[in-house]
Amino acid sequence: MGATADNGLKIVVVGGFGVGKTTLVRSVSEIRPLNTEETMTRTGEHIDDISEVRGKSATTVAFDFGRITLDARNVLYLFGAPGQERFWFLWDRLFSGTLGAVVLVDTRRIDDSWYAIDRLEHHGTPFVVACNDFGGPAYAPGRIRDALDLDPQVPLLDCDARSRASGKQVLITLVEHVRDTYAGHPHTPHSPVPEQELTR
């Protein structure tokens, strides 16, 4: 069905190193995701800060790609961006033509989210912030908003990137936010996404 769809709608999943972007794309995609993960080596330990992700054995070096067919005319394409600072130069190109974005956050490393939010705001791209559950202490939403200096209009929610249901809820929240953002703007760059199809 996706091959004959009229509208390919692009969503990007961004965030710091090791926050679960690949996992989120994998959990919600209807196809086996394309990924560019490579095995991490001892050499990379001197380049990437792995102090908070000791169990991580592979890392994305370009982007992840997944797909969700919404209906006969609309397909959602998911792109997971690499999190390491040395690959940030790819982000601006990846944001081109993007309907909206998910900023995935590890609350133990909140500062790693700053660059993603800054670039999305620079591009004027609607986004939501999803705090991935790593089993650490829970923080009040207000505290997270203050730490990220989030606009009150930006949705903030918890998620488990390993769960398909949780990942789909993040995407539904994003689609609703995009719809609300573009409401009243007649020259919206994309057709409205039928978010009810995500609930199937």
TrEMBL record:
One of its GO terms (molecular function) is GTP binding. SUPFAM superfamilies: P-loop containing nucleoside triphosphate hydrolases. Keywords: GTP-binding, Hydrolase, Nucleotide-binding. CDD domains: Ras_like_GTPase. The keyword 4Fe-4S does not apply. Belongs to the GPN-loop GTPase family. This is ATP/GTP-binding protein.
